[in-house]
Design a protein that fits this description.
CATH architecture of the largest domain: 3-Layer(aba) Sandwich
Number of helices: 11
Number of domains: 2
Largest sheet: 8 strands, antiparallel
Helix content: 25-40%
Bound molecules: flavin-adenine dinucleotide
Radius of gyration: 21 Å
Order of helices and strands: HEEEEHEHHEEHEEEHEEHEEHEEHEHH
Strand content: 15-25%
Mean pLDDT: 95
CATH class of the largest domain: Alpha Beta
Length: about 400
Amino acid sequence: MLSNLIRQGIKPTPLIVCAGGTSSRCAADGLWTVDLRARHRQLIINEEREEVEVGTGLTMAEVLQGLQPRGRSIPVGLSTIPGCGFVLTGGIGPLTRSQGLALDHIVGLCGVWGNGNIFDLSAPTNPASPGTASKNETHQQWKGLLGAAPFLAVVTAIRLRTQKLTPLVIWRSVCSVQQLEIAIEAAETWEHSASLQWAWNDNIELFITCCADDPAAMEAMQSLRTHLGYCPESSMAIVAGQHAQPAFGTMARAADPQERIHSEVISRLGPAWGQRLPSLMADLKELMNNRPHAGCQISAQQLGGASAQIPVSRTSFIHRNAIWKPWINATWMACDAKGQESALAWLMRANNLLSDYCPGVHLAQIHPHLSCHHQELNDAFKNWLPGLKHLKSHLDPYGLLPPL
Ligand SMILES: Cc1cc2nc3c(=O)[nH]c(=O)nc-3n(C[C@H](O)[C@H](O)[C@H](O)COP(=O)(O)OP(=O)(O)OC[C@H]3O[C@@H](n4cnc5c(N)ncnc54)[C@H](O)[C@@H]3O)c2cc1C
């Protein structure tokens, strides 16, 4: 049905796709939205293969809920609210360092290309080996879908490898700028399942996780705790899995905003900060001291480890050397045009500044409506962008989906 609709032609373009509906691009004035949440809700578990087929209308919370009784899971982000847009755009979370990106778990994809053709693809068995022209074409399509699907297709179902459900240790605390620097410095030496997430708002929140069955990670966490010293807000918990993880970022805010707020988010990717950490901290401090709205926040999550093991050539998530994903959340009060202008100016300034430390972009949010869109595409896909454009010229020749 979707294929027929697309073939008949949809105007105006781009067609907006809503999976979880958590981004500012799940609907837009004057444009059509395909809302996957109504029809694509299947969750089919294949216990023998340790795989699950997920309709792209499900949220991550619903996927985890379906898998949990079988003792299985997939690595999700810091919140389980997002939908399958999370998986298709990379999917970075507290378990990325030990289990890889959510996207690295994809073994099959079904959907409709922007040209109306239906596809049902499985992960190539030997992606590196040269093959026939048609096999190479399928490999390129697969690579395009893993990390750049929103520009090429509407994905209706994803088959994912599952993981054994493992308890997690989560340590949350608030800290000073100096303590954040110490925590980042320590985290950059970690070679186990521990990962550091932080959020900088009214306070700085540390959110450190590791697998409960990883003694080396537990020891590193404990040693950092001792190093940072006593903090009354500090709490350590063991949870059964990511479905039970506490909300990230709540300790960073002094109070929840009472007003209705709008926001834009830009996420960057970069290597270890090492010697440049003091200057980054000074820059962040200046940005946070001059944020235009109380909701404006800078946060970061740690990747590397398992996510760095996948060859760059295999997916459109090319920043495999990235250790940090900082993201900037710019907020303003709904209907406050002046507030929006200052928040977006702050966002651009923060983005420019962070791009020096983190040259890559994680395109978890697409911004065709913002001036930085083209630079973001370049920073997200670098040398692979021409290949993606070539794919798009065949698979979405009339620009049904967001522009590349
Ligand atoms: C509370 C919260 C926490 C988050 N935490 C993390 C995190 O820890 N790690 C992380 O990596 N990201 C995180 N994100 C970012 C999130 O993964 C992205 O914003 C993602 O795109 C959201 O997908 P969605 O399906 O919920 O949103 P939607 O708004 O429905 O989709 C976003 C866009 O993705 C594309 N898209 C979605 N589904 C499809 C599909 N089936 N076929 C083709 N295109 C599609 C479309 O362009 C769509 O407009 C978080 C976001 C929120 C709101």
